[in-house]
Amino acid sequence: MIKRAFLGAAAAGTFWAGAASADLLDDIIARDELTCGVNPGLAGFASPDANGNWTGFDVAFCKAVAAAVLKDPSKVRFVPLDLESRFTKLAEGEVDLLARNSTWTFSRDVELELEFAGVNYYDGQGFMVRKELGVTSVKELDSVSICVQRGSTSAQNLADYFKINGMTLDQVDVSSDAEGEQSYTSGECDAYTTDASGLAATRAAFADPENHIVLPEIISKEPLGPIVRQADGRWADVVRWTLYALVAAEEFGVTSKNIEELIKASTNPEVRRLLGVEGDLGAKLGLDNEWAKRAVQARGNYGEIFAANIGEQTPIGLARGLNAQWTQGGLLYAPPFR
């Protein structure tokens, strides 16, 4: 774990080689490339194909940021980061932005001096078992071997849950999603626990997904979101408001398909400010006024990105649930663009 004092010294001006300068936004614009840390391979969220082309929910967000800042969604270099090195690599400046299924917690926000730009996926920890095990509830996993990623919030939640419920924990540590999947499928453990979205992605990749079930209980809150360093304040604003632009665009019915039409026809003052027709929101971020327009055009608004990568019509098959707009019973809510 990176200690607060160490990062505090870095923020005071003794940052090690490779870290960001005083104004990361200017650096990114000068180099004409965004570096984005992502999961090494989690279907639906971030995974490369045989040609090294990255796709997924988190990948789409990185492309939206690149479009907003560099006017081209392709100007992203994706850096696969494992669970244990992701925060260190961000702190060292190896990546400008971390978009890697990471939970917003007190210690990560405060002790590691990271800046969560918001929540792009409201998740919770679940459990997957083989149907033949005959288990229908987490309460039936007493003394059952469970694979969990070492050093993750899932491991702490697992220990807490079993302690609270007076259950005996048989924990099998793994170092990554890939190792967890392998250990589970090979029978080294009888259950696998991680974020419910991760379980859906893992199950969808199985040759026999019908033989595996995700138990109904969710044992934690896992607000996942993009992260930057606290020292990079202006850059944090750019990442944060790009996320909110995608959320607000969906709320106002702005899509990658109708955006040009709405630029000409919309009389909604907030939509006109969002799309740069009126006001100077871009200038206040250090960007031009079409930054949000380009972010939406890159891969669509939040709803379009969700549907294309992890929605109910994809192999991942996730319902919107908590990730629906606040107007539709969910938690998605963008602050006003004014």
Features:
single chain, 338 residues, alpha/beta, five-stranded mixed sheet, three-stranded parallel sheet, 14 strands, 38% helix, 15% strand, globular
Give the topology, please.
Layout: H1 4-14, H2 24-31, E1 34-38, E2 47-48, E3 54-55, H3 57-70, E4 76-80, H4 86-91, E5 97-98, H5 106-110, E6 114-116, E7 121-123, E8 125-130, E9 145-149, H6 153-164, E10 170-174, H7 177-185, E11 191-195, H8 196-205, E12 212-214, E13 222-224, E14 227-229, H9 233-251, H10 259-265, H11 269-274, H12 281-285, H13 291-299, H14 302-309
Helix pairs in contact: 3-9, 3-13, 9-13
Question: Could you characterize what this model shows?
Answer:
The chain has 338 residues and is of the alpha/beta class. It has 14 helices and 14 strands. The strands form five sheets. The chain has a five-stranded mixed β-sheet with strand order 10-9-11-8-12. It is globular. 44% of the residues are buried. The model is unreliable at 1-21 (pLDDT under 50).
In a nutshell, what does this entry contain?
The protein is 38% helix and 15% strand.
